[in-house]
Automatic annotation (TrEMBL), chain A:
One of its GO terms (biological process) is proteasome-mediated ubiquitin-dependent protein catabolic process. The keyword Cytoplasm applies. GO terms for cellular component: cytoplasm; nucleus; proteasome core complex, beta-subunit complex. This is Proteasome subunit beta. SUPFAM superfamilies: N-terminal nucleophile aminohydrolases (Ntn hydrolases). Gene3D superfamilies: Glutamine Phosphoribosylpyrophosphate, subunit 1, domain 1 (3.60.20.10). The keyword Nucleus applies. Its main location: cytoplasm. Component of the proteasome complex. Component of the proteasome, a multicatalytic proteinase complex which is characterized by its ability to cleave peptides with Arg, Phe, Tyr, Leu, and Glu adjacent to the leaving group at neutral or slightly basic pH. The proteasome has an ATP-dependent proteolytic activity. It is found in: Cytoplasm; Nucleus. Pfam families: Proteasome.
From TrEMBL, chain B:
The 26S proteasome consists of a 20S proteasome core and two 19S regulatory subunits. The lineage of its organism: Eukaryota, Metazoa, Spiralia, Gnathifera, Rotifera. This is Proteasome subunit alpha type. SUPFAM superfamilies: N-terminal nucleophile aminohydrolases (Ntn hydrolases) (SSF56235). Keywords: Cytoplasm, Nucleus, Proteasome. It comes from the Eukaryota.
Length: 207, 235
């Protein structure tokens, strides 16, 4: 791990797109270099009925950025008297991150959302200074991001239903974190559909 | 100037009024009439644009201006104050777009513009704006048009139809009789022209009135040729 600030606390998150559904998953480890301190540190936060964000990186910034984004989204909902849309949330987040362009937060983010009326799916990622991505099928962030990305690509099929999507996401995450000492100790998977959101906790290798 | 005037020039009178704002409203009521009507599928803004001289190049300066793709405005009162507010409104709309990547909803922009106008009633060394604005826009989320009036005090009112400027009382009475919720945009344009006609001295032509319409496609000012067609339909 050494001196790399983005792997100081460890952690990983993944999001995948299905047919009118999205899955977003993260591990639960909170560690300080090679010591595991807690196994209940989830990195996924909800900002609207169908909008979720995952933050991976330095734990203090995961907490701060998620809270500061909540501050902005709360005021938005009060002022505009309406709920956030995924692309708007994404833009607000990248704006927040770019404000600190020359003294950045050490978190990489995933933003996912679903339009409950049309079923349109949104999956985006961002680096720690707010570089925007296209609306893609698969995104990963964190210390094991390359491992879970490879597995995610292997398991991904276009237009999966909610159950297939859950399987693909869970397998990619659980097996990927086994190759990374800084991630793991359980996982949480959210499957977001037009009419419901299902949260499942996974028990993987507890090491 | 600002070093000497840290205090507000707008102060309360014993009766609880802010006379500067009252006087600003007088400036508005002495200005040329403007009318706004919200139809079922859009909004129309219209104003008198009389030139003081035959030598004026009337087609160059405009009273009806757009703020962004889906919003426009018109005024009654002092032209230069209006120009400043148009610039501020445009900047506010773009700032919103930069943060949210969405066209600003009319309600949100009006709040921000009205806040600017209110600042000028409570800051040091400034006077209130001598204009009332009629701001129209289309809200894509709610899928409907909006019409708002912004006053020098910073108050804003949502209207179905209204008139501001000279003879606004007669204008509003005329509109109260003519307005209906089922009005379509085409009829609303006719009604707006007729309302302006009530207080118009002389012959109305395509060069001495300005009309803007806002619907789902966005806001645009009518060309003089289009205005001429509408005037011909009224006869």
């Amino acid at each position: 791990m050494g001196d790399d600030i983005l792997s100081y606390n460890g952690g990983v998150a993944l999001a995948m797109k299905g047919k009118e559904c999205i899955a977003i998953a993260c591990d639960k480890r909170y560690g300080v270099q090679n010591r595991t301190i807690a196994t209940n540190f989830t990195k996924i936060f909800q900002y609207s009925d169908h909008c979720f964000v995952a933050f991976c990186g330095l734990a203090t910034d995961v907490q701060t950025v998620s809270e500061r984004l909540k501050f902005r989204t709360n005021l938005y909902e009060l002022r505009e008297q309406r709920k956030l849309k995924p692309n708007v949330l994404y833009n607000m987040l990248t704006n927040l991150l770019y404000e600190r362009r020359f003294g950045p937060y050490f978190v990489f983010a995933l933003v996912v959302g679903l339009d409950p009326k049309t079923g349109e799916t949104f999956v985006y990622d961002s680096d720690n200074i707010g570089a925007i991505s296209d609306n893609v099928n698969l995104v990963t962030v964190g210390t094991a991001s390359e491992y879970i990305f490879g597995l995610g690509e292997l398991f991904f099929k276009p237009n999966m239903n909610a159950d297939e999507l859950f399987e693909a996401t869970s397998q990619a995450l659980l097996n990927g974190v086994d190759r990374d000492s800084a991630s793991g100790w359980g996982a949480v998977v959210y499957v977001i559909e037009k009419d419901k959101i299902t949260v499942r906790e996974l028990k993987g290798r507890q090491d | 100037m600002s070093e000497r005037y840290g205090f507000s020039l707008t102060t309360f009178s014993p009766s609880g009024k802010l006379v500067q704002i009252e006087y600003a409203l007088n400036a508005v009521n002495a200005g040329s009439p403007a009318v706004g009507i919200k139809a079922s599928n859009g909004v129309v803004l219209a104003t008198e644009k009389k030139s003081k001289s035959l030598l004026h190049d009337d087609r160059t300066i405009h009273k009806v201006e757009s703020i962004c793709k889906n919003m426009g405005l018109v005024y009654s009162g002092m032209g230069p104050d209006y120009r400043l507010l148009v610039q501020k409104a445009r900047k506010l709309a773009q700032e919103y777009m930069l943060v949210y990547e969405q066209n600003v909803p009319p309600t949100q922009l009006v709040k921000r513009v009205a806040d600017v106008m209110q600042e000028y009633t409570q800051s040091g060394g400034v006077r209130p704006f001598g204009v009332s604005l009629l701001i129209c826009g289309y809200d894509y989320d709610e899928d409907r048009p909006f019409l708002y009036q912004c006053d020098p005090s910073g108050s804003y009112f949502p209207w179905k139809a209204t008139a501001i400027g000279r003879n606004f009382v007669n204008g509003k009475t005329f509109l109260e009789k003519r307005y209906s919720d089922q009005l379509a945009l085409e009829d609303a344009v006719h009604t707006a022209i007729l309302t302006l006609k009530e207080s118009f001295e002389g012959q109305m032509t395509e060069d001495n009135i300005e009309i803007g319409i806002c619907d789902k496609e966005g806001f645009r000012r009518l060309t003089p040729a289009e205005v001429k067609d509408y005037l011909a339909q009224i006869g």
